[in-house]
Each structure stands twice: as structure tokens, then as C-alpha cells.
Specification:
heterodimer, A: about 325 residues, mainly beta, Immunoglobulin-like, 24 strands, B: about 500 residues, alpha/beta, Spore Coat Polysaccharide Biosynthesis Protein SpsA, Chain A, eight-stranded mixed beta sheet, 21 helices, 8 strands, globular
Chain lengths: ~325, ~500
């Protein structure tokens, strides 16, 4: 090894050592959240605030002073304490919060949503609309005093489906059947079904939708659900759960009460995929109204069909209510 | 005897135990003390980046030296030397020993042709092909054919067969090399050639020397007052088939070339590697290459080091010897081949117990030297085994297992960004690697498309991925085997040449 190589290597080695020893406290103190005050030769603990917003690119003010970077950003080497953090972006409502910075810790505000000041409104339809429903396949159905209309999701291709206009005043709920070929709606005591594909069976020029009252209850209705296949509905009233068969134009429908509540249900949930109905009810031996249980009723197709068959049979034998 | 066995096992266990202790310790601490591990990772990353920058600087120095000495007519320089200790250039015989296993005729012929192209007087060159008997008839027949072809071209061309199952030997290259050297000794003695007038080079079968190699070797040998207490190490490059090798294999072989170049700048820890040369007298005096160790190339250095009580050095020579890149046609077979080759290199960790056992018995070596050299071996193998694991696998552990509280700390938050920033700084060295790669590349063969040059450059940007796959794992494997006493067998890296249409024509 030549002498000059030795010198160069020594220079390189000691430079590397010097670089390592110089950078080590800087990198470590930065990583750990310490700040070195070179003027006073003091080390103190700091913390950090991390801010991200949706949409990104908002200004951040900390104690009223503008931070250089836009969101998402972090403000480092903050002395422990409380800071007023504001997130502002033109055209959006500002966001602000007092955030506490703890030593060697990161305080995060990473789910800030900025809402636009002026929403862009677009008029979809102008007729006198009593109510409406939007199907999963992107159609809007309008219940108007001139009848039932349908448009695409932007309000275009408006088409009158039916002249029916006797809509209930207080529609509680509207539900499309799983196949989206029917739409049910109900008020406190009645359930109606609109057959949206009725036009297929009609001569050209006839109405393409048909509205039919399918169920009337003597007890206030809590909720109504579709059973897969769209040929049955489940009506949950304050007194019981009934299933009703939907047979077009039937004068009499098969209706079965499958459960009688001990008390008015306070919550009902139907899992369409699993075919399970969940509800709360007071225990039969309960002394207090609050002594309630959560029940589940499995209404899988085979079980349900068999049950309906059985009920229909029993109905004849035992004189179950028939409509 | 029992005590010796105990110490040998202890020294065999130490490297693996250190490596596994580090890996498992960091893994465990990532759960219980994630902040400590995060601090360790950042310190290690910074250390590694600084080390990379330092070593790359040495690489630049070594490359400059290599480029500067490229045009020197070493033979002429030798001839101009006045006799040193009564020794003149014309006295020096260059003996070249090729231990051969199953390497084909094409591989050997290219290596011997390279000897023919060297500018050293051929009447001062002795070639020895020592063929393993267990390799079968074909390699031996090739050796005999080659002896017939080249017998008049050199002072002597010897083909010999290394018998299998000699007591005390294991199936390693060193045993074959030792056999060839003994045959050479018989020949030298029969011709009454002074052993100190012979410089022996032990080459892998695929080693092709530069034109000036033997001139350079002779000059260093003559001008070195401690010529018999030195080995002479050229810079190995893997140019023979580099244009036809897989990128992953090219990166690894280029990296090992660069590492050797860097080592030439650190002579105090420089150890012989692969093809190397030394005084034949010394080789005979120390009892030839070890016949029971896989890493014969470095083991011979340590054998000499112990024999001469620590007064033995390796002289770097800024000439290249070119070898084959260990490659295959498919990517997976190439990775497997590279893995096995690197694991064999990493098996050099067997030198640690060998040297430590030697140190125990050699009171004449100063304690300071013993500590320094033992540390050098250990540090080299330890960092080889742990660096990629720490950088890639341990670094994310505090974040994965440190829990929500750790992620809320500033160090938990800064760990990924600081590590990434340090990694980007280390990638600056890639630019230097690209520059030196381009400079060291042999001319592009006609059957290789010009676009391949771009691949040769771009391949370096994948080096971190290659390092993750083949950086530490072979070393961990080798150290674990040694630790558990599951000793490795010699895996011969098969050498196949790409035959271009031109060659066939």
C-alpha cells in the first residue's frame, strides 16, 4: 500500500468517524423528539402534531401562525403544551381544535373532513313530488299528484309509469324488493306494493306500474321487510310479526302470524342475506317493561316455505285470519 | 485433547451465537422495549450508511490505483531491477496450479490460453493441472489432452491425479491443491530449483489472468523484503461470462469484486481470497494448503500467519484475474447456485476457531495482535450475517409489535422516515458502483445486444432487493451449521461457458 493511499484512507476513515459522531446526536435527538438549543447549549423534550385532512392541501395555523406546509403535514419540535390548531382551505368550513402536545409524543388529527361552504345544488325534477325512492340500479321513482314517474339518476329520461296518485300522507318506509322489480311502502296501518314490471303484461300504451294495497293492519306497523323471491313480505307491528303472501290481484291472501310480542318491539333488524330477523321483546315472565331480550328468528327459505305451508294448513283448520 | 475439543466447539459456537443472539434479542425486545430497538435500528442505519460511504471512498481509491497501474509494463520493470538478495527476475519461476474437479475442457483451455497470452517468459512458467480422481475419467482425459497440447509451450506442463480417500483429507479443493503442490515440489527438487525461486499461484479452473499478471507478481515478489512472509492477491473480477449472466448473479459477483478492491485498501485485515499467489518455499514450509478445510484460500493465509507468529501479510496487486459468474439459465437455479457459492464463502467463518485455537497455542504472537485479528474475523462475519436482517426485518418490528403507544411516540413516528432517508443517502453509492461497473466491463460480445449495457447500469437499482435475498442468509446458514457442528461439505460451483455462434464457427 502506497504511502499516499495510507494518508487518503486515514483521511477517509477519520472523516467517516467524524460524520458519524456528528450526525448521531442530531439524528437521534430528532428521532426521539429532543431539540438541541445550540445557543444556550440545552436539550429539551419536544412533541409533534400531525394533521391530515380530506381534501388535502389545506393551510394549517398553529396558535394563529401559518405553518409552511399544506396538509398532510406535521409540526415538529413543539414544546409541550396546548396549541390552537386551525385547518383552513378556501371554499371549505374551517376546522379548529385545541391540541395538547406531550413530550416525545405525536398528537394526531388525521381524520379531519373539511365540508364545502357552498354545495352545488342541482334540480333533478320539478314536479310536485310527494315522495321518492331511488333503486340500486340507479332509477328515481317520484310519487306525485299526477302519478308515478321514473327518471334516471340525473333526472333525465322522465317517464310516467302510472296515473295512481292516492299516496298516503305519512309514508314511514319504502323498500325495493331484492330483485328491484317491486317497491313497497307503508304508513302506520297499510302496506302497498308497486309492481314496477307490470307493463310487461299490459298492452302497449297501458300503465307500466301497478299500485296495490297488500296489507292492512289493526295495530300500528313498525317495519316491513321483503322476503327473498319477492313473493312474501314480513310485517312487524306493535303486536306481532306477520307474513303475507303477495299474489297479484288476489282477493284473499295467505297471512300468518309467526310471533306475538309480549310488548311493543323497540328494535327490529332483518338480515336479508342470512334470512334472520332480530328483535327485542319483553320476557314472558318479566315483571318490568325493561326486562327485555334480543331474539332472533331464522327465516331461511325452506323453513319459511314449510312454515307457510303448515300455517296455511293450520289456518284452514284453526280459522286463522284470512284477508 | 478433551480441553482442545471443548475450546474448538466454543469458538465454533461464538459467531453463530452472536448472530442469533442479536437477531433473537432484537426480535424479543421489539415486543418489550420497542423504543430501545428503534434507537438501535437508527444508530445501526446511520453506522451502516457512514460505513457504506467510507467503503465506497476506498473503492474509488482502489479503482484509481487499478486504473493508474493498468498501463505499466511490469515485466520490463522487473528486468530493470537490480538483483535483490541475489535474486533476479530471470530467476523467478511462475508456477500455476489449477485444482480441477469436473470443469470442462473449454473452461480449462481458456484459462491456459490466458497464461499463453501473458507476457511473462513461458520458459519460466510451470503449469500444474491437479485433477480429482473421484471426478471420473473425463476430466483426467481432458487434462492429459491439454498436457499434450501445451507441453512444449511452457517450461513444464504437469497433469496429475489427486487420489481419493487419502487419510486425514476431506473432500475439499485444498486437498487437491496440496497434492498438486507436492507434485510440483517433487518436480522442482528433481530439477534442483530453489523453492524460493518459485512463486506459486493457485487458481480456480476458470481463472484467466491479465497479460501483466506474472510480471506484476514477480515485481512485487522481488521488491518485497518479506517476500516469503507474504501472499500476493490480485483483484478478482467476474468478466468471463458477465455479459451472459443473470442480473442477480452479476450484482453479487460485482459486489464481491468491489469488496475485494476495498480490502486492498485495508491491508492490516487483508486476507487471501480465491485465486492468489505466494512463495513456494513458504507453502512447503507451512505444509501446503489445509486438506481438511473448505475455505482453503483464506485458511492458507491464517496457517502462514500462525506459522510466522503473526508476521505475515497479504500484498495487494492492482491487476485483475477474471473468473466466471456463477449463473444458470433460470432465475431460481441462479439464486440457488449463488446462495450455495456465497454460503461456501461464508463458511470462511471456520477460520475463527482455526485461528483461535492457533492463538491459544502461540504465545509468541502479541496479545494485541491476537485480539485485533480475532475481532476482525468475527466482525466481518458478524456484520455480514446481521446487517441485511437488521435493515430489512428488524427495522419494522417496533412498529409492528410496539403497540399503539409506541406509534404515538416521536421515535415511533420518525423511525420509518429516518430509516428511509438514511437508505436514500446510501443509494448514492450506487452511482459510484455503476461508474466502476462500466469501467471494469469487458468489451460487449457480438451476440449481445447493445441495450444490455443499459441493463448493466439499471441492475444496480435492484441491489437492495438482491441484498435482502442473498445478503445475510448464506452467512447465517453457514454460521448456524458451524454452531451446531453440522459441518459443510465442499460444494463445487459448476462452470459452464456461454458458447456464442462465433465460437462454434
Amino acid at each position: 500500500m502506497k504511502h499516499i493511499d495510507k494518508i487518503m484512507r486515514a483521511v477517509a476513515f477519520y472523516t467517516a468517524v467524524a460524520v458519524f459522531l456528528t450526525l448521531l446526536p442530531i439524528v437521534l435527538s430528532y428521532s426521539l423528539g429532543y431539540k438541541i438549543d445550540y445557543n444556550e447549549f440545552k436539550i429539551y423534550k419536544t412533541g409533534m402534531i400531525y394533521v391530515s385532512s380530506h381534501p388535502a392541501g389545506a393551510n394549517v395555523l398553529i396558535n394563529g401562525r401559518l405553518h409552511g406546509d399544506l396538509t398532510p403535514t406535521r409540526m415538529e419540535e413543539l414544546k409541550p403544551g396546548t396549541y390552537k390548531v386551525e385547518v383552513r382551505r378556501e371554499g371549505f368550513y374551517p376546522w379548529e381544535r385545541d391540541m395538547e402536545v406531550r413530550p416525545n409524543m405525536v398528537t394526531k388529527a388525521d381524520r379531519i373532513i373539511l365540508f364545502p361552504v357552498a354545495q352545488e345544488m342541482k334540480k333533478v325534477a320539478t314536479s310536485e313530488i310527494a315522495d321518492f325512492a331511488i333503486s340500486e340500479n340507479g332509477k328515481i321513482y317520484y310519487f306525485t299528484r299526477y302519478g308515478l314517474f321514473r327518471s334516471d339518476i340525473e333526472g333525465g329520461s322522465l317517464k310516467k309509469l302510472s296515473g295512481y296518485s292516492a299516496w298516503p300522507k305519512n309514508i314511514i318506509g319504502k323498500k325495493f324488493s331484492p330483485e328491484t322489480d317491486r317497491l313497497l311502502y307503508f304508513d302506520g296501518y297499510k302496506v302497498f306494493v308497486i309492481r314496477l314490471d307490470a307493463g310487461k303484461a299490459q298492452p302497449k300504451g297501458g300503465e307500466t306500474a301497478k299500485v296495490e294495497e297488500v296489507f292492512a293492519s289493526s295495530d300500528p306497523i313498525v317495519d316491513v321487510f321483503w322476503y327473498p323471491g319477492s313473493s312474501y313480505i314480513m310485517v312487524v307491528s306493535e303486536k306481532d310479526i306477520k307474513v303475507a303472501e303477495l299474489r297479484e290481484g288476489a282477493l284473499k291472501r295467505n297471512i300468518a302470524s309467526i310471533y306475538k310480542f309480549n310488548s311493543r318491539p323497540r328494535g327490529v333488524y332483518y338480515n336479508e342475506d342470512a334470512g334472520i330477523l332480530y328483535f327485542t321483546d319483553k320476557k314472558s315472565d318479566a315483571v318490568s317493561e325493561e326486562d327485555r331480550c334480543l331474539y332472533k328468528l331464522e327465516l331461511k327459505e325452506n323453513f319459511f316455505n314449510n312454515m307457510i305451508r303448515m300455517l296455511v294448513k293450520r289456518e284452514t283448520d284453526e280459522g286463522y285470519e284470512k284477508r | 485433547m478433551k480441553r482442545d475439543r471443548f475450546y474448538r466447539r466454543l469458538f465454533e459456537i461464538i459467531p453463530g451465537a452472536l448472530t442469533w443472539g442479536t437477531i433473537l434479542g432484537l426480535f424479543a425486545f421489539a415486543f418489550i422495549r420497542p423504543v430501545w430497538v428503534a434507537i438501535f435500528v437508527i444508530v445501526f442505519d446511520l453506522f451502516w450508511v457512514t460505513r457504506m460511504l467510507y467503503l465506497t471512498t476506498l473503492l474509488v481509491f482502489a479503482y484509481r490505483r487499478l486504473a493508474r497501474e493498468k498501463g505499466i509494463d511490469w515485466v520490463k520493470r522487473c528486468q530493470e531491477l537490480s538483483p535483490v538478495d541475489g535474486l533476479k527476475c530471470s530467476h523467478i519461476y511462475q508456477a500455476v496450479l489449477f485444482p480441477v474437479y469436473k470443469e470442462g475442457m473449454d473452461v480449462l483451455r481458456a484459462s491456459i490460453d490466458a497464461l499463453m497470452r501473458s507476457n511473462y517468459p513461458k520458459d519460466k512458467m510451470i503449469v500444474v493441472l491437479s485433477v480429482e480422481e473421484r471426478a471420473g475419467a473425463e476430466p483426467w482425459e481432458s487434462a492429459v489432452r491439454l498436457a499434450g497440447l501445451y507441453k512444449d509451450k511452457f517450461f513444464r506442463f504437469i497433469a496429475t491425479r489427486h487420489p481419493d480417500n487419502i487419510p486425514g483429507e476431506i473432500k475439499v479443493k485444498g486437498a487437491n491443491a496440496a497434492w498438486g503442490a507436492k507434485v510440483l515440489k517433487d518436480f522442482a527438487d528433481s530439477r534442483k530449483i530453489d523453492h524460493s525461486h518459485i512463486v506459486i499461484s493457485c487458481f480456480d479452473a476458470d481463472t484467466c489472468v491479465e497479460r501483466e499478471y506474472f510480471g506484476c507478481l514477480a515485481w512485487h515478489y522481488l521488491t518485497n523484503p518479506d517476500r516469503n512472509r507474504s501472499s500476493y492477491q490480485p483483484i478478482p473480477v467476474y468478466n468471463n461470462n458477465i455479459w451472459h449472466a443473470r442480473s442477480i448473479a452479476r450484482i453479487l459477483e460485482l459486489a464481491s469484486s468491489f469488496m475485494q478492491m476495498i480490502e486492498t485498501m485495508r491491508v492490516e485485515k487483508f486476507v487471501t481470497f480465491s485465486s492468489h499467489s505466494m512463495s513456494f518455499k513458504t507453502l512447503v514450509d507451512v505444509g501446503y494448503w489445509p486438506v481438511d478445510m473448505i475455505s482453503d484460500d483464506s485458511a492458507i493465509y491464517w496457517k502462514c500467519f500462525l506459522h510466522f507468529n503473526g508476521r505475515y501479510t497479504v500484498i495487494p496487486m492492482y491487476v485483475t484475474v477474471s473468473m466466471d459468474v456463477a449463473t444458470e439459465k433460470g432465475i431460481i437455479p441462479t439464486i440457488v447456485k449463488q446462495y450455495r457459492q456465497k454460503r461456501r464463502w461464508a463458511w470462511g467463518v471456520e477460520n475463527f476457531p482455526f485461528v483461535m485455537m492457533g492463538f491459544r497455542k502461540k504465545n509468541s504472537i502479541p496479545l494485541g495482535v491476537k485480539i485485533r485479528r480475532a475481532f476482525n474475523i468475527l466482525e466481518c462475519h458478524y456484520t455480514w450475517a446481521v446487517w441485511a436482517v437488521i435493515v430489512s426485518l428488524i427495522a419494522p418490528l417496533p412498529l409492528l409489535f410496539g403497540g399503539g403507544l409506541f406509534r404515538q411516540t416521536t421515535i415511533g413516528y420518525n423511525l420509518p422516515s429516518v430509516s428511509a432517508a438514511l437508505f436514500r443517502v446510501s443509494m448514492l453509492t450506487v452511482l459510484i458502483f455503476i461508474f466502476i461497473t462500466v469501467k471494469l466491463l469487458p468489451p460487449r460480445p457480438p451476440d449481445v445486444k447493445p441495450q444490455k449495457r443499459i441493463i448493466m447500469i439499471m441492475q444496480w437499482f435492484f441491489s437492495p432487493v438482491v441484498a435482502l435475498v442473498l445478503g445475510s442468509t448464506p452467512a447465517i446458514d453457514a454460521q448456524t451449521r458451524l454452531m451446531l457442528g453440522k459441518y459443510m461439505k465442499f460444494y463445487v460451483t459448476s462452470k459452464h461457458r456461454h458458447i456464442s455462434k462465433q465460437d462454434i464457427a
